[in-house]
Amino acid sequence: MSSDFQNGVPDTEHDGLIGLLPSAARPYALLARFDRPIGWWLLFWPCAWGVALAGGAIERWDLLLWLLLGAIAMRGAGCVYNDIVDRDLDRQVARTRSRPVASGVISLRAAWIWLALLCLVGLIVWLQINGTARLVALGSLALVAAYPFMKRITWWPQAWLGLVFSWGALVGWLAIATEFHWAMVLLYLGTVFWVIGYDTIYALQDREDDALVGIRSSALRLGDNVRFGVLAFYLTALASWGAAFWMLRPQWLALAALGPLGLHLLWQVMTLKSADGGDALAKFRSNRFAGLLMFLACLVLGQAG
Fold first, then answer.
1. Number of folded domains that form the chain
2. Stretch 90-106: mean pLDDT, rounded?
3. What is the reported pLDDT for 182?
4. 20 to 30 A from 285, CA-CA: which of 8, 84, 162, 271?
5. Please, which residues have CB within 8 angstroms of residue 208's CB and are 6 or more apart in sequence?
6. Under a CB-based contact definition with an 8 Å cutoff, are residues 78 and 148 in contact?
7. pLDDT of 136 strictly over 80
8. pLDDT greater than 90 at residue 90
């Protein structure tokens, strides 16, 4: 096992719980990115927002726990699938060449088996939600399957990731309120733009390597206008969320609930150092806190309704 693989990548938390696992299990945990919990938090938060905005966060706290488990499992499954598809590209990028499949630590066959096991956990979680939410959840599978190929055919794979990572907002809402509401759509739309914004920040780490191997990203497309682009994405997200809140409770106080989140996103943009990969990673990871602020806003509005 190479030293690069052992040490992980800059955003790993390899020395935590992962370090306590038997040595044979660690590569599988790293393949599913269990050492990088930011990913499952970013997948979970939209689910929690949907539940909270629909008014079910308190009564259905157990559903939130199921959705968190589902986010951990399915984010892991998505990472395994992504690494299977991208194994050749990953070998050409400094930050990713030590990934278990790309480096040969885990065989292709073993990776497919691990993917199936993670999907089995996802299936168990899927069975915990109602029929309407189940059908909507199934709709995300095609988006997930296509995502790893987007970086090869479009400059905006971050937009496709937005469609995928925001899907939980629809599932969470419909798991509580089974009827269609435009507020649900606006919540989803805003989340898509939030994801594009934070993943553009994340992509700043790889701009040089991506350009060399032909991987496309919004960070490369925006060039020197990254900060302006991320600001535009975040403002669109806030406007969409504000419209959703207004539809449910047409009072200025409802919009004020988004104030702390708006300030946090503005801080990200104003202090972003686009040439500093470490700063980009820190700003990206701060969206875990942004997700909490949005959840609290949805919780207040959902319970007030």
1. 1
2. 84
3. 96
4. 84
5. none
6. no
7. yes
8. no
Assess contact for 136 and 174: CB atoms under 8 A: yes
pLDDT-derived band at 161, boundaries 50, 70, 90? very high
- Domain containing 34 equals 3-304
Helix (H, G, I), strand (E, B) or coil at 30: helix
- Report yes or no: 284 and 237 within 8 Å, Cβ to Cβ: no
Please give the structure tokens belonging to residue 260. Answer: 């702390």
pLDDT band at residue 10 using 50, 70 and 90 as cut-offs: very low
What per-residue confidence (pLDDT) applies to 209?
A: 66
3-state secondary structure of 12: coil
Tokens 């995502």 correspond to what residue?
147
Q: Which amino acid is at 183?
A: A
Residue 203 backbone dihedrals phi, psi, to 5 degrees: -70, -15
- H-only helix segments in 36-166: 38-53, 61-85, 87-90, 100-103, 108-126, 131-138, 140-153, 157-165
| CA 178 distance to own-chain centroid | 24
Q: Position 139: which residue type? A: G
Q: Kindly state the tokens that stand for 185.
A: 């759509």
∠ CA 237-240-243, nearest 5°, is 150
Q: Is 278 exposed, middle or buried (0-12, 13-18, 19+ CB in 10 A)?
A: exposed
